Amino acid sequence: MLTYYCWRCKCEVPMLDEEEWARVSPYLSQTIAAVKDYRQRTGAGIADAKKAVSDRACEEFENLTGYKETNYLAIYHHRLSKHGPPCRNCGNLLRTPRARFCAACGTVVRADDAV
Fold this sequence. Notes:
Layout: E1 2-6, E2 11-15, H1 18-42, H2 46-52, H3 56-65
Antiparallel strand pairs: 1-2
Helix pairs in contact: 1-2, 1-3
């Protein structure tokens, strides 16, 4: 399990490879559908619906990584393939696979930095 700094969460988190993502993503879809359904049935706000619905996505993320994520939406940006390679200077992942510089330290990406 690879952990990297997540610029959105502002901490080190496990990043999912594609095999792990395939195990978690169906639960993300189910959780979102359950939240929407609960809101339609009850008229509840998003915060109340999130509390009321079983969050299988976060449970599966924790089963795979050992990291307790409390926000299922954050899991969407803990997918390794959505990021670029680690910066050669600071080691943080580039924010996208097509990034031209490291947003963390400003290092310009060279052609030989690509994975």
